[in-house]
Amino acid sequence: MNPFAVIFDMDGVICHTNPYHAKAFEQFFDKYKIPYTEKEFEEHMYGKHNSYIMTHFFKREIIGQELKQLEEEKEALFRKIYHQEVVPLPHYLPFLDDLKSAGFKTAVATSAPLANLKLILDSLQIDARMDSLMASEDVSQHKPHPEVYLKSAEKLGVSPDACVVFEDSFSGVTAALNAGMKVVGVLSSHSREELPPCSLYINDYREINATRVLNLLQQ
Prior knowledge:
Low-confidence stretches: none
Strand order of the largest sheet: 3-2-1-4-5-6
Distance between the termini: 20 Å
Strand content: 5-15%
Order of helices and strands: EHHHHHEHEHEHEEH
Mean pLDDT: 96
Shape: globular
Number of helices: 9
Number of strands: 6
Largest sheet: 6 strands, parallel
Helix content: 40-55%
Structural class: alpha/beta
């Protein structure tokens, strides 16, 4: 076991779920007669927590029990749409194998609910390969706040500066940087110009391996 860790966001990093979240939100907003555009989805849905998304689109603060109820309804829609479509980003699984062979601790830190995390990790059969799992229920403050990444490092038993985070969204990259971690920007949802400065950018996992991650941490 080496002294370093790799922490993955989930949506857009392990699986390209954004199109399916968009489908779920379309059905959800249509039911509540809430207008939306693709541009709004790009700016106010991808990489954001449901409390922000609901408040933006409903044009009023959505909190407490109402948020819990609406969130559960929308996420259940997502799981219904996505459960037979779960596939990893290209070459993600061989990259994960490479990291584990090199002795990295690995984790997932997502703003999604635990039920979504369970669906994806169970479908890909990688639950046992992760040394820490964090979902929205595990934090009180969501990305871009660094809580989920700082808690992950603590659970992994490593310092934040010994972690590399793989992220695809502005708020996620910001959270990882705020935690004092190095970040690899995964360009599945956004261009590099749309993200805060990262240590490295990849289009998919063919462009990265355990040796490159190690070099990044040792710079």
